[in-house]
Specification:
- With about 120 residues, this protein is of the alpha+beta class.
- It has a single domain, classed as Gcn5-related N-acetyltransferase (GNAT) (Aminopeptidase, 3-Layer(aba) Sandwich), CATH 3.40.630.30.
- It contains 2 helices and 6 strands; from the N terminus they run βββββαβα.
- A 6-stranded mixed sheet has the order 1-2-3-4-5-6, with helices on one face.
- A hairpin with a 2-residue loop joins strand 3 and strand 4.
- The radius of gyration is 13 Å and the shape is globular.
- The relative contact order is 0.17.
Length: about 120
Protein backbone atom coordinates (compact mmCIF):
# COMPACT_ATOMS: atom_id res chain seq x y z
CA UNK A 1 0.00 0.00 0.00
CA UNK A 2 1.54 3.29 -1.10
CA UNK A 3 1.41 6.07 1.41
CA UNK A 4 2.44 9.72 1.38
CA UNK A 5 2.36 11.81 4.53
CA UNK A 6 2.67 15.53 5.06
CA UNK A 7 1.76 17.94 7.79
CA UNK A 8 -0.34 21.06 7.38
CA UNK A 9 0.85 22.59 10.59
CA UNK A 10 -2.06 21.48 12.77
CA UNK A 11 -2.98 18.03 11.48
CA UNK A 12 -1.26 15.12 9.82
CA UNK A 13 -2.38 14.50 6.26
CA UNK A 14 -1.76 11.22 4.46
CA UNK A 15 -2.77 9.77 1.13
CA UNK A 16 -3.13 6.00 0.99
CA UNK A 17 -3.62 3.85 -2.11
CA UNK A 18 -6.51 1.42 -1.55
CA UNK A 19 -6.49 -0.70 -4.73
CA UNK A 20 -8.48 -3.56 -3.18
CA UNK A 21 -11.15 -1.52 -1.40
CA UNK A 22 -14.54 -3.29 -1.68
CA UNK A 23 -16.16 -0.09 -2.99
CA UNK A 24 -13.51 0.20 -5.72
CA UNK A 25 -9.89 1.29 -6.07
CA UNK A 26 -9.10 4.75 -4.76
CA UNK A 27 -6.59 7.01 -3.16
CA UNK A 28 -7.86 7.88 0.28
CA UNK A 29 -7.08 11.20 1.99
CA UNK A 30 -6.82 11.01 5.77
CA UNK A 31 -6.64 14.04 8.01
CA UNK A 32 -5.79 13.43 11.64
CA UNK A 33 -6.52 9.73 11.12
CA UNK A 34 -10.01 10.36 9.67
CA UNK A 35 -11.04 9.75 6.09
CA UNK A 36 -11.52 13.18 4.52
CA UNK A 37 -11.75 12.40 0.82
CA UNK A 38 -10.91 10.14 -2.06
CA UNK A 39 -9.76 10.06 -5.66
CA UNK A 40 -11.48 7.14 -7.40
CA UNK A 41 -9.63 5.37 -10.19
CA UNK A 42 -9.67 2.25 -12.34
CA UNK A 43 -6.58 0.18 -13.01
CA UNK A 44 -5.96 -0.12 -16.75
CA UNK A 45 -3.43 -1.92 -18.93
CA UNK A 46 0.08 -2.01 -17.56
CA UNK A 47 0.70 0.60 -14.88
CA UNK A 48 -1.91 3.06 -16.18
CA UNK A 49 -4.55 4.45 -13.83
CA UNK A 50 -7.74 6.05 -15.07
CA UNK A 51 -8.56 8.91 -12.67
CA UNK A 52 -12.33 9.30 -12.45
CA UNK A 53 -13.54 11.44 -9.57
CA UNK A 54 -12.22 13.45 -6.62
CA UNK A 55 -14.35 14.02 -3.56
CA UNK A 56 -13.66 15.76 -0.25
CA UNK A 57 -16.10 15.23 2.61
CA UNK A 58 -18.41 18.11 3.48
CA UNK A 59 -16.86 18.81 6.87
CA UNK A 60 -13.39 19.01 5.27
CA UNK A 61 -14.28 21.24 2.33
CA UNK A 62 -12.86 24.73 1.94
CA UNK A 63 -9.46 23.76 3.33
CA UNK A 64 -7.63 23.09 0.07
CA UNK A 65 -7.44 19.35 0.73
CA UNK A 66 -7.96 18.27 -2.86
CA UNK A 67 -4.42 19.52 -3.57
CA UNK A 68 -2.59 17.07 -1.25
CA UNK A 69 -4.95 14.30 -2.36
CA UNK A 70 -4.14 14.84 -6.04
CA UNK A 71 -0.43 15.37 -5.32
CA UNK A 72 -0.28 12.14 -3.34
CA UNK A 73 -1.93 10.20 -6.17
CA UNK A 74 0.41 11.70 -8.78
CA UNK A 75 3.46 11.01 -6.62
CA UNK A 76 2.38 7.39 -6.26
CA UNK A 77 1.78 6.96 -10.01
CA UNK A 78 5.20 8.49 -10.74
CA UNK A 79 6.92 6.26 -8.15
CA UNK A 80 5.39 3.19 -9.81
CA UNK A 81 6.63 4.34 -13.21
CA UNK A 82 3.01 4.51 -14.33
CA UNK A 83 0.86 6.75 -16.46
CA UNK A 84 -2.61 8.19 -16.10
CA UNK A 85 -5.72 8.82 -18.10
CA UNK A 86 -7.70 11.71 -16.66
CA UNK A 87 -11.48 12.03 -16.54
CA UNK A 88 -11.61 14.12 -13.34
CA UNK A 89 -12.13 17.90 -13.65
CA UNK A 90 -10.28 18.58 -10.36
CA UNK A 91 -7.23 16.65 -11.56
CA UNK A 92 -7.45 18.47 -14.90
CA UNK A 93 -7.39 21.87 -13.18
CA UNK A 94 -4.44 20.73 -11.07
CA UNK A 95 -2.54 19.60 -14.19
CA UNK A 96 -3.24 22.98 -15.82
CA UNK A 97 -1.58 24.72 -12.86
CA UNK A 98 1.24 22.18 -12.52
CA UNK A 99 2.41 21.24 -16.04
CA UNK A 100 5.38 19.34 -14.62
CA UNK A 101 2.95 16.45 -13.99
CA UNK A 102 1.82 16.30 -17.63
CA UNK A 103 4.60 13.77 -18.18
CA UNK A 104 2.37 11.20 -16.47
CA UNK A 105 -0.52 11.62 -18.94
CA UNK A 106 -0.61 8.63 -21.28
CA UNK A 107 -0.21 10.01 -24.81
CA UNK A 108 -2.33 7.22 -26.32
CA UNK A 109 -5.05 7.50 -23.68
CA UNK A 110 -5.00 11.07 -22.31
CA UNK A 111 -8.66 11.04 -21.32
CA UNK A 112 -10.96 14.03 -21.26
CA UNK A 113 -8.84 17.07 -21.89
CA UNK A 114 -11.65 19.43 -20.93
CA UNK A 115 -10.62 20.72 -17.54
CA UNK A 116 -13.89 21.55 -15.87
Amino acid sequence: MAEASRGDGAEDIEVVDRPDDPSGPRYELRVGGRTAGMLVYQAADGDRRVLLHTEVGEEFQGRGLSKPLIEGALEDIAARGGTLTNHCPAVGRYLDKHPEWERLVDPEHPGDRRRG
